[in-house]
Amino acid sequence: MSVLGKKWIIKSRSANATIFDKLLENRSLTSEEISDEVAFHDPFLMKDMQKSVDRIMKAIANEERIIIFGDYDVDGLTSTAILYHALKKLNAKHSARLPNREKDGYGLSKQFIDEFNQLKVKLVITVDTGISCKKEIDYANKKGIDIIVTDHHQVPETPPKAYAINHPKQKDCSYPYEELTGAGVAFKLAHALLLHNLGEDGVNEHLPPLVELAALGTIADLGELKDENRMIVKEGLKNLFKTSSPGLKVLKSLVGVKEGEVTTTTVGFQLAPRINAAGRIGDPYIALKLLIGEDEQQLFSYGKELEELNKKRQEMTTTSFFEAIKKFDNYEKMGQLPYILIDSHPDWHVGIIGLTASRLADRFGRPAIIFQDLDDTLVASARSIEAFNIIEAIAAHKDLLVTFGGHKEAAGLTIKKKNFKKFKAQIESYAKKLLKNQDLRSSIEIDCEIQSDDISEKLVDEINKLKPFGISNKRPLFIIKGAKPAFLETVGRNKDHLKFEAEIEGKSIPVIGFRLGDHMGSARKHRSLDLACHVDINEWNGKKKIQLELVDFREGKAPMSPTFDRG
Questions:
Q1: Alpha-carbon span 313 to 310, nearest angstrom
Q2: Are residues 386 and 535 in the same domain?
Q3: For residue range 443-483, what is the model confidence (pLDDT) as tens digits?
Q4: Which label site among 82, 211, 288, 386 has the fewest CB atoms less than 10 Å from its CB?
């Protein structure tokens, strides 16, 4: 067993293919897809796209007020900003509305429709939401309000009767790629509007600032990095490096993004959490204003506020996670850990319960649903594992719910407290039936085994051709067997990183294991180790050197050389 207790799954054992061919095959990529010659799909291939564009152009011509209705997460906020900027280019009379997670909940509601009706609004465009708002859209229709839905969440059996629906997964849609995020779909509508009004030259001029917003949303919403998602992220990251967005310039500065390429890691762990913090525990308009504003002094104020909200969010998440983990740790020790983890607390903020659920699912290898107790109602966020489709599980018990929505990895729901016990018992039984005989240890997918001669700058160059990395295109991970560890030490401010030299078939290669410092004793006691690691270049003081970045390790089988000093 590995030191982290994880299953190692080696995806390719082919003896004939090159390492690079194995990497491509493991990701279902072709050499053409990773080339720099990218072209976005024609947006008008998406069902109802022409209908949406025609209705928006009619609204612009008649000086109707258009409202963009978004969501409060990064995908929803960037979707809103994309259409806001696109409509601004076309001199539309437009504004944006966002629900407050705590006060309004998710999606359109009767209260928002009433507000739009009072304002005499005749056209609303939803972004990253709307596909499951059938009742609300029926209500809008009665009020004479046209709704254009742009969304990517699961399409219900009976879709809403909206004026137009732009969703790549809806029936009879001929769009060639289905896995766009909400920001991706909003980007396609913006692309169509610019193409319709400004032609290819206008698209080339005005699309780049929008693609970087789409990249932010795609990365934050864990969109798979294949096909058009890959194009969006690849082009968006290039633009983000030298962004013209005043708000993103401020955010990069506050976060401390250094000179060099902006990666999916930069977005996923530095930029996106700060944008998300506003919608989680504060006012989502702060983040939206950062993405659409122009006044540098005001934008700096918004950025500082996001920074403070993110720190508070981190503290709240840590507190709720440790409160929840005590309970499930005890269940695990008694051999009574349920197949789905369900918990609630009145003090757990609705904005961080999804993060708590995610950490629990990762820690225990089981799906998790975490509730906030709100008097007679419970609001929940759910996160899942690869072996369990959480939205199907929730939908199977929809008769007990007020609302629900999401996709196979993540979902949300609202339930009356009187139905909670019945829901909990039923979904626990459902999960047990599906997961009882499965190995639920979390796994590490390893691309292939490599030898010492494979570890070279040439391999790093080939790895870099696959960038950007993310969902469905993970950073390549290799297994190296029989490495002999020497000069082991813990490094870092808190001594939480493991560092050593690995002797591999006569070569000595430096190894760094981030957050593996607690496992130095395990590394020291074994004569040799099998390493699950990335291969990269470490640059320090102008010098470049191959380095292995350790993810996990286990005892190896090779004998230790008696002449090699293990430290």
A1: 5
A2: no
A3: 899 999 999 999 999 999 999 999 999 988 999 999 999 99
A4: 386
Rounded Cα distance, 71 and 90, in Å: 23
Structural domain includes residue 561: no
Question: Helices 182-206 & 227-241, crossing angle to 10 degrees?
Answer: 60
Strand order of the sheet with strand 410-416? 341-345, 368-374, 377-383, 410-416, 403-406
**Residues 176 and 56 reside in one and the same domain:** yes
| 259 confidence band (pLDDT: 50, 70, 90) | low
Residue 262 pLDDT > 60, yes or no?
Answer: yes
154 and 217 assigned to the same domain: yes
Rounded Cα distance, 206 and 212, in Å:
12
Residue 213, amino acid: L
Q: 381, 357 in Cβ contact below 8 A?
A: yes
CA angle at 362 for the pair 358 and 368, rounded to the nearest 5°: 50
Instruction: Give the torsion sign (CA, 284, 117, 95, 201).
Output: positive
Whether 375 shows a pLDDT value over 80: the answer reads no
Confidence bin at 70 (pLDDT 50/70/90)? very high
Tokens of 75: 């995908």
Mean pLDDT of 199-208: 90
What's the predicted TM-score (pTM) here? 0.85
Amino acid 562: pLDDT: 36
Compute the residue count for the chain: 567
Task: Give the domain-ending residue among 409, 435, 461.
Answer: 435
Q: Is 213 in contact with 450 (CB distance < 8 Å)?
A: no
**Residue span of the structural domain in which 534 resides:** 7-34+444-555
User: Is the same domain home to 203 and 140?
Assistant: yes
Is 312 contained in some domain?
Answer: no
